[in-house]
Design goal:
Elements (H helix, E strand, L loop, with lengths): L6 E3 L2 H14 L7 E4 L2 H14 L11 E8 L5 H4 L4 E7 L8 E4 L5 E3 L20
Parallel strand pairs: 1-6, 2-3, 3-4, 4-5
Helix pairs in contact: 1-2
């Protein structure tokens, strides 16, 4: 039997702490806005935008804070625009050079707070049983 990848379950308390840390360490306060690059990034962007008084941007662009929930490879926004500040809740890139709240070993299964029902049991979702 193959070994299972390490499992990391993120929590809502961790989400609040991630917003606090990113807001405190965000270098540029005069940004054009905050963009969420993935599903978790969009939630972080909404909370971070509220905290920093920045608009949430529907599309990525120059002069923004680009927020990711989980980064497995270097974000394109890093090289697309020189004035973008990139943040991630969890950095699982091999180089681990993205500004992030935490560094995660590549290959780790990362579950967001809203993914905790059937996923942490390590079995598939069973309709009628898990809902």
């Amino acid at each position: 039997m193959a070994a299972r990848p390490p499992l990391l379950q993120l929590t809502w308390a961790g989400f609040d702490a991630a917003v606090d840390l990113i807001a405190a360490q965000c270098r540029w306060r005069d940004r054009a806005g905050v963009h969420g690059a993935d599903a978790a990034g969009r939630l972080l962007a909404a909370a971070l935008g509220e905290r920093l008084g920045l608009n949430v941007l529907p599309l990525a662009g120059p002069g923004m804070v680009d927020v990711h929930g989980l980064v497995r490879r270097a974000p394109a926004s890093e090289w697309a625009w020189p004035d973008v500040e990139v943040w991630a809740w969890a950095d699982a890139t091999p180089e681990q050079r993205v500004q992030s709240v935490m560094k995660v070993t590549p290959g780790t299964l990362v579950l967001m707070p809203w993914q905790d029902a059937a996923a942490n049991t390590r079995r598939p979702f069973v309709a009628g049983f898990d809902d």
